[in-house]
């Protein structure tokens, strides 16, 4: 999420019943002679998966959408919002495709990198960890910056009480709320707090739309650009805000692992629903917020409303939103830190197919699987990593009042990597016809088709096979194009940040 720019779950998993990999993915069972596969099946519902992914996507950055429209113009701005949602959604779709090559319940960036680019795995996970850690700190800083104003908005006399207007007090106070949430193992355990966060987003959307309908901001409204943009530089400065507003890819693998029915249709529908709702929210707030103030709009549209109880509640809603979004950043940060600590250099003599450290269970799954935690971390390791993340983020938030410069570069590299570059490169590499993982998956699919009976054979079956091959080839080309697009976005954002964020200071 681009928010800055603007409990113990034991993992209710159960042993999978013997069957095919496809039966574990929520599809129809294969014949008894098919390979038996044992893994971990999640219990999360489709709705909770959408709620958690949507909460990861939509943050306080939604309030910066009207400013992006003022710089780009209405038509170009809406196009960029839709295009960014399409490309981010395609990256998520590729992640769901990549998860098919992994054991049920074991999908992660680390697992994929071990199968594709093992020596670069530590770089990928380090980038994800730093990105999530930085965003989590920015949430704490937002809480410390907004709460004194919220308290004074409800009671002017609160300004006389020193600790109530002290950002350090509020950062410390809200940490007591997010600490127990951060120690939850399963993302699905955060579905109720995600509902509260989405209610906060709903209030902010209603607030912006209500002021637009009432027309009480017309006296402050500037001119409106429908087609023309402010300038190329101004447009580029708002481009990262929109692109990074869809970043949620760090949590998708957890959602795929935990969802009860992880068939291709169900996981794709989670992606489509989440991205679709997020895009609708962004467009609605962007248009109504921009038409309310015109070119006089600022980065946080709520901050320029006439002081009132409703606008103060809006600021409080932002605090609630980022508070419950903090654990959603700790979850992938912890997994990535754990992967970095586990990483060992890949030796040429090793083979991903034969080495246990290279996911040998994928190629030769055992007949018995121990009951383990969904994240694979022991109690002590889990507690140590989580505590380190929380303590370090708290210390930084208490000592630093702005991370604008740092997050500008972290977002440009980390967000583009996990949203576009890694999903594109991973799928392009693992789906290669020469890849042993791809060949194995294709053999499983062929065996399933063979077991379906004669009714699927013949002319229609042949056409379906040819069509499937054509679609897979196209998908590989599009995945490579997404990776190239990601590198282009990264370079553009780095140059823009250097010229507009760092240089002026």
Number of helices: 17
Approximate shape: globular
Distance between the termini: 24 Å
Unreliable residue runs = 4-40, 352-374, 446-465
| Biggest sheet statistics | 2 strands, antiparallel
Radius of gyration, Cα only, in angstroms?
Answer: 24 Å
> Tally of extended strands?
2
Share in helix? 55-70%
Label the structural class: mainly alpha
Topology readout:
Elements: E1 14-15, H1 21-24, E2 40-41, H2 46-57, H3 65-72, H4 74-99, H5 109-116, H6 121-154, H7 167-182, H8 191-214, H9 232-243, H10 252-258, H11 264-293, H12 309-342, H13 360-363, H14 379-399, H15 404-430, H16 436-451, H17 459-502
Antiparallel strand pairs: 1-2
Helix pairs in contact: 2-8, 2-11, 3-4, 3-9, 3-11, 4-11, 4-15, 5-6, 5-15, 6-7, 6-12, 6-14, 6-15, 7-12, 7-14, 8-11, 8-12, 9-17, 12-14, 15-17
Which properties best describe this structure?
single chain; 505 residues; mainly alpha; two-stranded antiparallel sheet; globular
Descriptive account of the structure:
Helix 2 packs parallel to helix 11, helix 7 (167-182) crosses helix 12 (309-342) and helix 9 crosses helix 17 (459-502). The chain has a two-stranded antiparallel sheet with strand order 1-2. The longest helix is centred in the C-terminal third of the chain and has 44 residues, at 459-502. It starts with 13 loop residues before the first strand and ends with a helix. It has helices spanning 21-24, 46-57, 65-72, 74-99, 109-116, 121-154, 167-182, 191-214, 232-243, 252-258, 264-293, 309-342, 360-363, 379-399, 404-430, 436-451, 459-502, and strands spanning 14-15, 40-41. It is globular, with a radius of gyration of 24 Å. The chain is mainly α. The model is unreliable at 4-40, 352-374 and 446-465 (pLDDT under 50). Helices cover 65% and strands 1% of the residues. It contains 17 helices and two strands.
